[in-house]
Amino acid sequence: MSLFSFLAIGAASTLCPSVSVHDGDTIRCGSERIRIADIDAPELPDSPKCQDYRARYAWCDFEKGYASRDELRAFLAKGRVVVVRQDVDRYGRTLALIRVNGVDAGDWLIGRGLARRWN
Q1: CA angle 57, 44, 24 (to 5 degrees)
Q2: What is the DSSP string of 73-115?
Q3: Is the pTM of this model over 0.90?
Q4: 48-77: string of b/e by CB count within 10 Å (b at 16+)?
């Protein structure tokens, strides 16, 4: 990560007192949009990725998309949500690891077959 990216995203690790879940790999911490780093979760039906030419590359299993979102929501409700910021993506979202009680959310979803490793 560049020095500029580090300064742009602020402190490396913070608590998120107000979290909401968009889908299996995207959350909000207050008004900050956060993409969970290093994973890819199935898309939801409203995803533009499943509406055009990108559908052949996207994971458009909507049933698993709902399951991933719902399991992430339940996981984050189990304790204090810690955000470990890493970078900012091309859409302006913070890329971060998300942990609850020391457990990484991405690894937790992958272990349940509700996300895959993103390289």
Answers
A1: 90
A2: HHHHTTS-EEEEEEEE-TTSPEEEEEEETTEEHHHHHHHTTS-
A3: no
A4: eebeeeeeeebbbeeebbbbbbebbeebbe
pLDDT per residue of the chain (119 residues) written in tens, 0 to 9: 444 444 444 556 899 999 999 999 999 999 999 999 999 999 999 898 888 877 787 889 999 999 999 999 999 999 999 999 999 999 999 999 999 999 999 999 999 999 999 87
Give the CB-side neighbour count of residue 34, counting CA atoms within 13 A.
28
The token pair that represents 45 in the structure block: 């039906």
